[in-house]
Write a structure and sequence with these properties.
alpha/beta, 273 residues, Rossmann fold, seven-stranded parallel beta sheet, binds nicotinamide-adenine-dinucleotide, globular
Length: 273
């Protein structure tokens, strides 16, 4: 997937006049921030005053995101990161500390998602290697990234970890059971990590997006799949990355200081609980 300047600005919620400075002085790491919704999270956190680390497997995309943020006057650093590799994540944490001196926010956004074929994949036809790769990035990656930043957060006695699940984990879905299972794991991961890190004043919360048009240049079939999401929502329109950034900024900010272990569904009222 590619991105461009226009989507970058739109997705950050830049047109929203209520943007505040509530993350001034904070340092936020967003995994998988070179493309899609992660890029929008990074842009919004920067807009709210944070220095942002783009921890991205696609090094070229990460560097492009860093340049775009810096061009707009924000502090940013791209770190080529593979969330399945503990050494790579330790390096991510080290480079963040060396450059910005602290780690306040981690958004566990990296996942195998848009690269899964849109075609329906019955549960008994999924290749074992594909199942393992899904769990390695989507589940183990969030665990390893949290493990890498937690020493700095514990030392500070403060921090915000925001995990990204999916509405599919709450509703079920008639395909891609490996993806849905990985996103369901993130719900339990969030609750347990919140209990373990609570004594260190670290909040752990989760955002569950609905079907979101995260592609910059979607083909016809992708567009119709994304637009179809509007049908079972209370709010009848296609979900965009800009719909999600406010929830992540809220969980990153002091406004959510007494909220932990929670999952916020942001899907226009498709799944209600
Ligand atoms: N788009 C949706 O409809 C939707 C719905 C619900 C939840 N989500 C979740 O939102 C998040 C972002 O989704 P998206 O649509 O922007 O997906 P995307 O595929 O566009 O972005 C994922 C990003 O993660 C990066 N990445 C993949 N493997 C990595 C690794 N091993 N290490 C580091 N980075 C890696 C990719 O390069 C990419 O930049 C994902 O967690 C996804 O599961 C998306």
């Amino acid at each position: 997937m590619s991105q461009n300047d226009t989507s970058f600005t739109e997705n950050s919620g830049a047109s929203n006049e209520i943007i505040s400075n509530r993350l001034k002085g904070k340092v936020a790491i967003v995994t998988g921030a070179g493309h899609g919704i992660g890029l929008a999270y990074a842009a919004r956190l920067a807009l709210e005053g944070a220095a942002v680390v783009i921890a991205e497997l696609d090094a070229e995309a990460g560097e492009k995101a860093e340049a775009e943020l810096k061009n707009k006057g924000y502090s940013a650093l791209a770190v080529a990161t593979n969330v399945t590799d503990p050494g790579s994540l330790d390096e991510m944490a080290k480079k963040t500390l060396d450059t910005f001196g602290r780690i306040d926010v981690l958004v566990n956004n990296a996942a195998i998602f848009s690269t899964i074929p849109m075609s329906r994949s019955p549960f008994d036809e999924i290749a074992i290697e594909e199942w393992d790769a899904m769990m390695a990035v989507n589940v183990k990656g969030a665990w390893l990234a949290s493990r890498a930043v937690s020493p700095a957060m514990k030392k500070q006695m403060s921090g915000k970890i925001i995990n990204i699940s999916s509405g599919t984990a709450l509703k079920g879905s008639a395909s891609r059971i490996h993806y849905v299972t990985s996103k369901a794991a993130i719900l339990g991961f969030t609750r347990t990590l919140a209990r373990e890190l609570g004594p260190y004043n670290i909040n752990v919360n989760c955002v569950a997006p609905g079907n979101t048009l995260s592609e910059v240049n979607p083909d016809e079939s992708t567009l119709s799949f994304r637009n179809a999401g509007a049908n079972d929502r209370a709010l009848k329109r296609t979900e965009k990355p800009s719909d999600l950034v406010g929830a992540v900024a809220f969980f990153a900010s002091p406004d959510s200081d007494f909220i932990t272990g929670q999952t916020l569904v942001v899907d226009g009222g498709s799944f209600m609980h």
